[in-house]
Input
Amino acid sequence: MHERILELLGKEGFHGAPRSQVATGMCFVAMEHAQGLRSLIALALANSAVGLMRIQFEALMRAAWLLYAAPEATIVKLLSPLTLDSEKAAKNLPGVNEMLEGLRKSIGGPGEGIPASAYEMLAHFKDVTWSAMNSFVHGGIHPLRRFEEGFPLPLALQILRNSNGLVTMTGMLLAVLTGNSLIASAMSRIQPDFSDCLPDLQDRESEG
Output
């Protein structure tokens, strides 16, 4: 699935506007986290993998927010070379809840808002996974019990599927950023074509 997404993107360039540039970069950060998660699962380091899934989700959320809802001043800050001053200027970026609200308000905007279906998938993913992901990231009961009792294979597979679901959303956002409707159309078929390794986002499933 991952190879197919990259194949569809191919050598297609991305829109060079500043907003698109930062959104594209954050999409590839999310893809890197997904690759790291798969590597950790392969090494039987599933507790750490769940921590990566949260930052994968946050990177995707940030990419969508940057494209559809971020103020221009934020775009300018994130395009600045990394210095102590630019780090300080960009440190107060909104959290997940604030970004979700910004995306919700952008729905139906004049050609620039996030599609309602994309917003609903992001909001649903957070609703289903957030509590457990926080526990893994902040040293809560989930990672402790998984360390003590073992990490069930079905749960590890579900983590992979959830991460893959985020990858498909990231791929779709990247397809939009190419500005090529043919690529976007082909990317929309990834989910049905690879449904066996993706979560059913309509089912409310816990991470643990």
User: Anything to note?
Assistant: Residues 201-208 have pLDDT under 50 and may be disordered.
